[in-house]
């Protein structure tokens, strides 16, 4: 087991002195970074700045108990902490401020995130995992207030799981489960539901988690008294304080941000609780100052009075730290020892300024060199075209007048030159075109790569293994197929676990996990409280630490509770780190064609549009669903799999190769061949479409039915366009609202696959009404597309072109 800070503090005075001075040095460097960073923004070199000045001391104290293998899930003011754990340098800090797209110079996000968003790289260049126990880990920050909290729960729970779960390679992710997950949050953001849901879940699960609340008394301009029921969050949380002998609740520690020795003690005690006893801890850091205000967008003088500003100046953490250092003395063997003199601290202050200025200068020069090199490679080629169009010289003149040039300016110039010389053919234009294509590919990688996995384990690379059937294959309820497949999964992948509301003891509400908890234990098949946002958060955090979680959201409608986390966190993990981190969590849910306003919604369009970065898989039955689970557990992409809620009691033939067969992502299936019209659908609606297709056959219309199966990625081989080429008519049928998923599918087919070229009739979408369905079967019939709706609307297409053969129905 790792030792704790308390256990390692038997040191000499000289070592003690060196540690204090190193803290003072780091604190001063961090403060100078904040000061210079603000100036860089205000002088126009950077777009925006938000800094960690005022929080130096508590972050230095927190860093002392942060060990290899530990994780942090925080927000954008923790630069001192990142410096102290070697996750940040002065140069990388300014590289991020300038949005440098070099991973080497800005490893947190390669310029994709604004400053203050920190991350360590969990992955090698090929997408494989590094040894996370050999480094200090920061899960990539996000800006949405309290959005980092659900993920924190999963990062902490992973340590608890690793105490009992082992698998090949698990030693790279945990040292016997002795890691702590550290969270940081501003005091105003504790008003968000994600904070309360996370803390509640952590107290129930008893996970090793330390949450630091930086309390500066304001949420931008709004004082704390207007943020919460009580200004003192520690007082509000008093009911969460654990009682002796009970295995619930948390420890609460309150400490002043400017009291260095008290901060060291607070974090040492917090570490003992979390690392040794696996108890969540809240460290409420009060009397935090913000010397430069909230951000570069405004001044805190607008909302803080003179008295408050004077107090902040007096109780600035670094000011008080300096006072403490200068006032410290101790007698050792009859000799008075001090830590440092005024002159020594002044020298450290001067050194900090020089270090920061040098780092900023290097970062700026490296960033500028990227742009100047681009200009040098492209501008001469543009100038070669001046003789071919008189406008080009003017474009070059405008470009040269720019005081500050960015990549976009050289690309704009190049594209204007190519536009001006359209229709001409010359060696000079060809050379410019070749250079443009070359540099555009580089910038495409800089700005648009890694939305999905680019590793060898990406879902698209998982080969199809078809279900195997024999004479002994049984017809069983669909829920039995998925249940028995889960049994094989848990046996095959010891790192896989599932959790959700009712997922454990009763085997989920539809019995798709029946008997799994009894067989594999409460750690791997677990019940949770009713708290969807943190169910997702558990999945994200666990997946970031090498586990393969299946986070169950009981019904598709309830996924709205986790949509923020899906959109802002999970979907962007690989993108915002440019392939530096991944979280291959599978979100299991069920829906479609159920009855009642609150259980029959189809928020697929929201999922599609808000969660690009997550695969969206919509199997039509439970065998297909099982195949998708088998596929995704071989992949490092995250996915949401929507099981058909009305399919659990329908009979399916159970494959003999459970746990082995796969359904490929991005591939459609033609479930009925036809020659007159192509019907495209997915999920539970597929059964209704098949019924309608049979009715249409009786009316002389041969319909080809296509099950999309996978919305993201969508029909990678353009097979739907080939179908439309044969039938010359297209109908998209969906139970989502008008303009929802049907619009997405139509855009993919008509625009991307260019199937419009083959149409003899207007394309048709048949979707649900814009309201939620009313209760019972009649509600479904009158709210979502029925077989009657489909037959009549599709028949009308043929009536329009050949009314004699297809006379009007009404």
Strand content: 5-15%
Task: Name the strands of the widest sheet in spatial order.
Answer: 13-12-14-15-17-16-22
Mean pLDDT, rounded to whole units?
A: 95
Kindly report the name of the CATH homologous superfamily of the largest domain.
Thiamin diphosphate (ThDP)-binding fold, Pyr/PP domains
The level 1 CATH classification of the largest domain is Alpha Beta
Categorize the overall geometry: globular
Question: What's the number of helices?
Answer: 26
Which CATH-level-2 architecture of the largest domain? 3-Layer(aba) Sandwich
Number of strands: 24
Low confidence ranges: none
**SSE class:** alpha/beta
Largest sheet: 7 strands, mixed
Keywords: Oxidoreductase, Pyruvate, Thiamine pyrophosphate
Pfam families: E1_dh, Transket_pyr, Transketolase_C
Function: E1 component of the 2-oxoglutarate dehydrogenase (OGDH) complex which catalyzes the decarboxylation of 2-oxoglutarate, the first step in the conversion of 2-oxoglutarate to succinyl-CoA and CO(2).
Protein name: Pyruvate dehydrogenase E1 component subunit beta
Describe the structure in your own words.
One of its GO terms (molecular function) is pyruvate dehydrogenase (acetyl-transferring) activity. Its cofactor is thiamine diphosphate. This is Pyruvate dehydrogenase E1 component subunit beta. It is a single chain. Helices cover 41% and strands 13% of the residues. The protein has 810 residues and is of the alpha/beta class. The strands form 6 sheets. The chain has a 7-stranded mixed beta sheet, with helices on both faces. A 6-stranded parallel beta sheet has the order 2-1-3-4-8-7, with helices on both faces. The protein has a 5-stranded mixed beta sheet with strand order 19-21-20-23-24, sandwiched between helices. It is globular. The mean pLDDT is 95.
